[in-house]
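ERR on first pass: missing label on line 2. Operator R.T. fixed the label and resubmitted. Corrected input:
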Amino acid sequence: MTYTELFTDILKLASQKGFEFTELYFEDHLSQSVKFANNKVENISSGQSRGVGIRVISENSAGYAYTSELTKKALTETLEAAGYLASKATKNPTEVNISPLETSTEKETQIPLRRQVELIQTAQDSAQLSNAIAQINIVLSTGQKNILILNSEGLIKSQTQQRTHFSTRIVASGDSGLQTGYEVIARVGNPSFLTENEVAQISKKAAEMALIKLQAQPVPTGEMPVVLAKGSGGILFHEACGHGLEADHILKGASQFCNRLNTRVAPEYVTLVDDPTVEGYWGTLEIDDEGNNGSCTTLIKDGLLVGYMADRLRAKHFNLRPANGRRQSYKHPPMVRMTNTFIKPSNLEPQEIIQDTKYGIYVSKLSGGQVNTTTGDFVFGILEAYLIKDGEIKTPLREANLIGNGLNTLSLIDAVGNDFDMSPGTCGKDGQQVPVGCGMPTLRVSKLTVGGTSK
Amino acid sequence: MTQSEFANNLLEHAEKLLNLASKGESLEIYLSKEITTHIRVYNKEVEQLTKATDLGAAIRLIKNKRQAFCYIQSLNPEDFEKAINSLREYINYSDEDPFIQLNDETNLNGSYFDGVYSDSIEKTALSQKVLKAKELEQLIFSCDPKIKKVEHADYDDEITEISIVNTNGVAKSLLKTRCFLSGSAIAEDNDDHYISYVSEFAKDFDSLNTQSIAKEIAQKAISHLNAIKPKTAVLPVVFSPRVSSIFLSQLTTAFSAEALYKNMSFFKNRLQEQVAAPLVSIVEDPTDKLAYGATYFDGEASQVKPIDLIKDGILMNFLSDLKHALATNNAPTASAVRYGYSSPIAVGARALKISSPGLTFSEILKDLGTAILIDSVIGTHSGVNPVSGDFSVGAEGFEIKNGELGQPLKELTVASSLQKMLLDITHISDEHYYLPSSAQGRYIAFKSMTISGL
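pass 2 clean. output:
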């Protein structure tokens, strides 16, 4: 019996029980990681995770259970557990007609282990810029995930996805103590982008960052203009408004974007989208984890709030197209999540924006952030930044947090550049981690609170 | 599962799998079985219910001082054999490491559960657990009319069985339980609103105090209404127990012998030096059965014991697993941690405790006069660099004026460095709380921190 036949039988059983909606999510995930530290390949590890998550929805309740045992007995028991809530609200059995399988299995190539070790050695050599380099940590992780999704409405879809993630974390030691530099490159799809030249550049940049920060001064304190460089600054919008535009928060009234559709929330040169269809980005997918086709959702268009991101449950409520039902693994029920969220470029030269800033901070790299979606208050960490004085980038600064409020910050964007870059990240929500892309052009927020220690 | 079933089950199976090691190979197998329940209540209905059993194995193979690691979700010997064959290939590409070793502490082999396991989690019907979450939601609402929404009320539990065996003859197993109540409430007043989040844990079902958790969730939401953004200033700061627990957890990297070995600890070359104010004594004590991270043995099956890390402000010890103890010439402290079967071994803390000279929270407030109480922080993962020690987090809290709590504050950052903060500690409260964290919480006051606001 094939998996498809086995899972179809379980769906038929669910129908006989009168469950309103049943979904099976099968996942087979292989991962491998090579870690380099202390001048040696410290550890090579791998993992295989395979199982099925079953979701039974009745009215507004969702039951979920999972198993790694792929037998009819185990799956039947898992269905019983997932249907605990639904069993009190059964309806008449309906015929389950499973459509032909829609496959999207692109055959990817693996990086041989020997090649992975060679790339790491190249990266290590490139990071040895001075005696002040005290530690070089490099991690090369690869993974391939095959998923198969079936539901009681007849949907059956599959997806194969390969991910490659290469990061270097460098520690430099000097009179001012220890400082760190971090760079990452990560893509979905064919790993051939990972060349000697690419890893050498990443590694060198991380080492340079750590060395520059040895000269870094304490970050100023208080409200001031902040220029965010293209790329990793996208985390600002991921935190400042992305989470607040997830329809589960909107539905519960736990977002500052509730009841603001078609109102102005940003200047006219700000357009924000969530787009899983762009090739190679870290949040890219063909179908989401409910089997919905990936599609671009415009959230803010020319400053007007025009859309929310939704999974199946919330799309029904708001009459939206679902494209953002994601989950960490088969052990997790899907929920509304971002994919690749980015501000589109406008028309200013990045240099113009800097020259137009009398005093402020130029943030070239951010490390991550967090938001309270209800109030919109967010923080994000500065990994690499410089003081701007009289329109010029000056002294390097130590690490600190920036703090602001989503709606307020959107309204304070007063310059958007014509460049653009994306940055990979991991987004956490309700205990689930999923890969996402964040992006933006160079832009300036006229006033953000900087959490430094210098007056 | 009965305790005798537990004692015989997983451990026996794991021991048989050790036969897969070839001559010259050392093998360690970590098996874990976790049964979990998650219930989320919203608007008096169960919005989400998840039940699961998760079974998996971590395998570590060492040969010629080289190691490799993998995990699988199977107990089938054929799958193990396949996995071990992959590890044999990986080892060819790993570098030799003279400090790699497996535990040989066989004198305490056996099964453990006293104090960390309660059968109440298994014996309590699912319907009772659902009622617990519903009761929490209802109690939060009943605390105050300003509570307009309960964004969620959750009940969670886990029954975890772990067995560690290795080819040195080590064979230990542990059965532990934990259950949790957590909730998030939105309070509204005039045009202002605030959302709170609080989580509590217990080892047995009946110890979860729904009333007190509901009160804390509601109180936190209401007390922060109408908060203002403070002016930028340098002031004495008090961390609430939940925030001080986060602060102590952030010190784990500095205390880690792995970080020390990799030049990533700002405590390097500072053993027996003063690194904190003289009133500061910090102990790692996973033997304290009330602690969230209480255990009998660590991720390598070494028996845990209390470890003095800082005593009267002096750095006394680092946290070590077996490898990094040898590499740094420190005594091993049984501090190998695993975050489930899919995670390789790391050095970490489970149950950090800071001791108090005996002051109460209200005495600390009176002594400080003017200060700021921080009771909530966000952005610790991005704003705290445990290597450089830079500390800057988003925060909320209250003004302290004339020794009394006053105006709620929002949208501020509080910044310093981890090292300076340790030296700046002026008060530690007698009140202490066991939180779902690797560190206990107390009120801790710091001489000065930079508050960034208006």
